[in-house]
């Protein structure tokens, strides 16, 4: 793994069948082509109540924090372009019952 965290070879081969990030630091295990995910996000608009929804994300690859437009499928790091992000804060999300946050 590029991040240099140790893992048994047999465990690694099994792990990468269903995961693309290091189990320790969550950095991507290899370069990922995110074009397919970007196309899916563009083709699936969010419901109107999420039109102004944004999220503060932490990128697991470059460690940058950025505020980006929210999407259920993924949230792209504004710095390095990866979707390997963790949501830290929700901004402008609708509240249950129709009131906005």
Q: Report the structural category.
A: alpha+beta
What share of residues is helical?
10-25%
Provide the residue-averaged pLDDT. 90
Helix segment tally: 2
Neighbour order of strands in the largest sheet: 2-1-3
Question: How is the main sheet built?
Answer: 3 strands, antiparallel
Strand content: 15-25%
Task: State the order of secondary-structure elements, H for helix, E for strand.
Answer: HHEEE
Distance between the termini: 41 Å
Instruction: State the shape.
Output: elongated
* Rg from Cα: 16 Å
Strands, count: 3
Q: How would you portray this structure in words?
A:
By secondary structure, the chain is of the alpha+beta class. It is built from two helices and three strands; from the N terminus they run ααβββ. It has helices at 9-15, 35-43; strands spanning 54-59, 65-69, 85-91. The protein is elongated and about 50 Å long. The model has no long low-confidence stretch (mean pLDDT 90).
Short descriptors:
about 100 residues, alpha+beta, 3-stranded antiparallel sheet, 2 helices, elongated
Summarize the structure.
With 101 residues, the chain is α+β, with helices and mostly antiparallel strands. The chain contains two helices and three strands, in the order ααβββ. The longest helix has 9 residues, at 35-43.
SSE order and pairing:
Layout: H1 9-15, H2 35-43, E1 54-59, E2 65-69, E3 85-91
Antiparallel strand pairs: 1-2, 1-3
């Amino acid at each position: 793994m590029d991040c240099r965290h140790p893992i048994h070879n047999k465990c690694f081969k099994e792990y990468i069948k269903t995961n693309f990030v290091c189990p320790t630091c969550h950095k991507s295990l290899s370069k990922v082509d995110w074009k397919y995910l970007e196309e899916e996000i563009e083709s699936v608009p969010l419901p109107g109540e999420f039109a102004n929804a944004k999220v503060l994300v932490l990128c697991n690859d470059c460690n940058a924090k950025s505020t980006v437009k929210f999407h259920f499928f993924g949230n792209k790091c504004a710095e390095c372009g990866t979707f390997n992000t963790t949501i830290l804060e929700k901004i402008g999300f609708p509240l249950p019952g129709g009131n906005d946050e």
